[in-house]
Fold this sequence. Notes:
By secondary structure, this protein is mainly alpha-helical. The protein has helices spanning 15-42, 47-50, 64-72, 74-107, 110-121, 128-137, 144-168, 172-180, 185-196, 198-214, 217-222, 230-235, 245-265, 267-276. The protein starts with 14 loop residues before the first helix and ends in a 5-residue tail after the last helix.
Amino acid sequence: MSATLSPVRPQRRRPYGSWLRGAAITVVTLVFALPVVWMFAAAFKTNVQVTDPSVGLWFTPTLDNFRAVVEAGQIVRSMGNSLLVGVVSTVLSAVIAVPAAWAVGRFSMRRTGSVILVARIVPAISLLVPWYYLFARMGLVGSYTVLILSHMFVSVPLIMWIMISFFAGLPVELEEAARTDGLSAFGAFWRISLPLAAPGTATASLLAFVFSWNNFMFALVFSDDRTQTVPVTLFNFISYASTDWGGLMAAASLITVPVVLAAVLGQKYLVAGLTSGATKG
């Protein structure tokens, strides 16, 4: 008895579904992009034009806001402070968190993972008072050290939480083969797992750097005029009597550029890191 093959039916196209999907993506993109577009446009307006609803995107641009912000010097110094604190805290956090995440993921330390989760969900604002008292007694308030340590409190659990699932998804057979060839457990991690985890490490480090760059609460409490970071500098544009909207939007545009460039340059690793750790095997 021979089996009869049924003809393959061609798949029907769904033009309406594709059109609706495209329309939904366009609407969501516009909703999220319009505030950013308005910010960049307002940076080239005068304060009168910013507060005038009749002035839309058609106006005569001016560079006076950028010129005033740069000549004041505080925003440039603050960007340097944020870059220093962000890079150092991210590097130190990655050095601590990545090997710890490998150990938790490889040796099934569930209690340790629970502790990390608790550290992720504890509100950092609840620790500001004891931290300030402790760091003030140590004479560290107003220094880069206290900013780096406070940012690491969030960056280390963040990187660990991302990397635990990433290491758990790597084939353990690769490390076992390396151990058979004579490598130690740390040697297998250093030569096998760490290179394979490069996309995940880049993703976690980028997210930690963005947190450090945007953090306002720690910088407001622990920094001074010398170590002030960009979120606090932006806050200084707002006063009780008035707000320098043009200068505020120009400064906000300037501090947005480094983060956007970092995201664009690391886009390949960011996408790979977010997707590679999603499945096991």
